[in-house]
């Protein structure tokens, strides 16, 4: 409001004065509680990246002492022309996208099942959230040995046969274990959305003669959209960094069938000790993440505005 | 409850029953691997590796005994230390920050809020090498305090977002009234803010505890035998040599138990925490 009024009298307005002393003091008193957390976050999460950028310009293999020298962008040339890194990128996208998509769909189905009153609803809800609470490392081992194992695993034990699930369907095996853990997460978020829906709207739709399917696709689903987006977004943030399941179930194999970016960079760092290349790969991944995250932040931002508007 | 032979109602009752059965089946199916883990932990190794799987057996504690014989306890204590101390640090840092982003906001609070969340999006793996080299230079490899610092940074953005959403629920009129009465900041915090946001603090603490307790990537790369946390104890089970399934399941059950119990008890707060306060 005020801006529209003052815009015409800009020329006659007095020059901007520097903030007076109490003003500045007041601003710092506002900032003070924020500073410890902000400084801590910058030091611990941002400075390492600067160091990574520096390391990425070095030719440095830790197994050859004294081999360290400045080589400019040569590591980037190696990394970007590296077929393994490209394969790892593709695997990361496949792994993240399929786990997120399947767990959102399953989560939606389960949330709908739980959005009605029935005997034992609390117990079923408790049973359903448990997979998300099991330690991911323990869950990965459980799936690898107790469920997928060809000779004594649960799947072959129940259905017969002697399929070696992990080596025949490596990506599916990893994704299935991740979906099992992340479906409860999606369910909880979507269920919260379903339960915040106003009963009056649904009742109005029913009175107007809409069938249950019509009500679902025309009213409930559009209403749930922000919740589905939020679930998918948060799930992607965590799942794109998947390490435990790959490290445990397949070790990135067979061959490189399930090697994702975190595992690939881990191998370059701690198995091949190519510090320079690992750093360059890290920088490339960070740039890629920033590109994707800018988009993701826009989604969060729009959710945010909706919250304000409410 | 009239006994009308209304066919529409009878079919409605029947579909209701179908949905109920379906919900129960889904719940049991998702729980099956966990149930199998707990059951297998009480088997003898011979029964654990049997095919077809044995559902009925005499429970034994061999698995649990062996796990503790192999010194699981120090790993559990390291996990407890890393999770509790980092959670405490996170709350101490995040609560004032959330205050400065909600009740008495700084000028560009929105940018700051998004800065925090963006640190959560950056891949940890890209920071691994510099962190490793720095920690090595400081002689802090295989030290619980290293994990504490890193877990604090890892959970800080979640906690800031969560605490902010709880603080926003405090009525501004209440705070203004306190200021009018001349209450100091500390009194305002203790008498007005704390009672209202206490459940929020508990929920935030729960989420931070869960994420630190379950963290594996940093732990496996920065610790070994001295400061190893409970997931590190499990690394030994990755190769499948010898009879070990019962022991593995016993270990997996023990290390998962604290978080499973905490999550069960605090189901209500779980949603809000996992969505960083976006979903109430």
UniProtKB/TrEMBL annotation, chain A:
It comes from the Bacteria. InterPro entries: MetI-like (IPR000515), MetI-like_sf (IPR035906). This is Sugar ABC transporter permease. The chain crosses the membrane at residues 34-55, 88-114, 126-148, 168-194, 227-249, 278-300. It is found in: Cell membrane. Residues 1-24 are annotated as: Disordered. Pfam families: BPD_transp_1 (PF00528). Keywords: Cell membrane, Membrane, Transmembrane, Transmembrane helix, Transport. It is a multi-pass membrane protein. Belongs to the binding-protein-dependent transport system permease family. Coiled coil: none annotated. It comes from Micromonospora radicis. Residues 9-19 have a biased composition (Low complexity). GO terms for cellular component: plasma membrane. Residues 89-296 form the ABC transmembrane type-1 domain.
Automatic annotation (TrEMBL), chain B:
One of its GO terms (cellular component) is plasma membrane. Coiled coil: none annotated. It comes from the Bacteria. Its main location: membrane. InterPro entries: BP-dep_ABC_trans_perm, MetI-like, MetI-like_sf. Residues 76-266 form the ABC transmembrane type-1 domain. One of its GO terms (biological process) is transmembrane transport. Pfam families: BPD_transp_1 (PF00528). Keywords: Cell membrane, Membrane, Transmembrane, Transmembrane helix, Transport. Belongs to the binding-protein-dependent transport system permease family. This is Carbohydrate ABC transporter permease. It comes from Micromonospora radicis.
């Amino acid at each position: 409001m005020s801006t529209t009024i003052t815009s015409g009298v800009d020329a006659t307005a007095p020059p901007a004065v520097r903030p007076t002393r109490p003003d500045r003091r007041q601003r710092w008193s506002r900032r003070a509680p924020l500073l410890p957390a902000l400084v801590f976050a910058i030091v611990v999460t941002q400075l390492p990246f600067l160091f990574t950028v520096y390391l990425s310009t070095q030719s440095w293999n830790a197994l050859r002492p004294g081999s360290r020298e400045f080589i400019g962008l040569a590591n980037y040339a190696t990394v970007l022309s590296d077929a393994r890194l490209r394969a790892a990128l593709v695997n990361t996208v496949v792994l993240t996208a399929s786990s997120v998509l399947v767990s959102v769909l399953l989560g939606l189905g389960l949330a709908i099942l739980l959005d009605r009153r029935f005997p034992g609803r609390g117990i079923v809800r408790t049973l359903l959230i448990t997979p998300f609470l099991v330690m991911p490392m323990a869950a990965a081992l459980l799936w690898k040995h107790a469920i997928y194992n060809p000779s004594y695993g649960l799947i072959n034990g129940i259905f017969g046969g002697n399929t070696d699930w992990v080596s025949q369907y490596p990506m599916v095996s990893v994704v299935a274990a991740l979906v099992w853990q992340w479906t409860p997460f999606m369910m909880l978020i979507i269920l919260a959305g379903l339960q915040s829906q106003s009963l009056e709207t649904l009742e109005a739709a029913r009175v107007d003669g809409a069938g249950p399917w019509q009500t679902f696709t025309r009213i409930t689903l559009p209403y749930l959209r922000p919740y589905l987006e939020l679930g998918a977004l948060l799930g992607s943030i965590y799942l794109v960094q998947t390490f435990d399941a790959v490290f445990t179930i397949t070790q990135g194999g067979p061959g490189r069938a399930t090697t994702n970016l975190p595992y690939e960079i881990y191998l370059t760092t701690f198995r091949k000790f190519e510090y320079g290349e690992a750093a360059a790969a890290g920088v490339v991944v960070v740039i890629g993440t920033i590109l994707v995250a800018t988009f993701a932040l826009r989604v969060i931002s729009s959710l945010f505005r909706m919250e304000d508007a409410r | 409850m009239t006994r009308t032979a209304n066919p529409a109602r009878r079919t409605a009752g029947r579909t209701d029953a179908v949905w109920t059965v379906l919900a129960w089946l889904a719940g049991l199916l998702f729980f099956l691997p966990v149930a199998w883990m707990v059951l297998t932990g009480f088997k003898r190794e011979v029964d654990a590796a049997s095919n077809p799987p044995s559902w009925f057996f005499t429970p034994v504690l061999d698995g649990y005994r062996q796990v503790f014989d192999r010194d699981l306890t120090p790993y559990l204590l390291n996990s407890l230390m890393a999770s509790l101390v980092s959670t405490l640090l996170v709350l101490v840092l995040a609560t004032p920050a959330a205050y400065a982003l909600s009740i008495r906001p700084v000028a560009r609070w929105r940018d700051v809020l998004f800065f925090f969340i963006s640190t959560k999006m950056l891949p940890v793996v890209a920071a691994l090498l510099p962190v490793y080299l720095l920690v090595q230079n400081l002689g802090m490899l295989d030290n619980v305090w290293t994990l504490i610092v890193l877990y604090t940074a890892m959970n800080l953005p979640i906690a800031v977002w969560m605490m902010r959403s709880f603080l926003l629920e405090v009525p501004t009129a209440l705070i203004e009234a306190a200021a009018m009465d001349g209450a100091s900041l500390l009194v305002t915090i203790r008498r007005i803010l704390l009672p209202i946001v206490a459940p929020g603090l508990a929920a935030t603490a729960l989420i931070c505890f869960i994420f630190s307790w379950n963290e594996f990537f940093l732990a496996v790369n920065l610790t070994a035998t001295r400061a190893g946390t409970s997931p590190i104890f499990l690394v030994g089970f990755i190769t499948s040599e010898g009879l070990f399934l019962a022991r593995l399941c016993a270990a997996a059950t023990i290390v998962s138990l604290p978080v499973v119990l905490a999550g069960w008890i605090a189901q209500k707060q779980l949603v809000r925490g996992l969505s960083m306060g976006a979903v109430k």
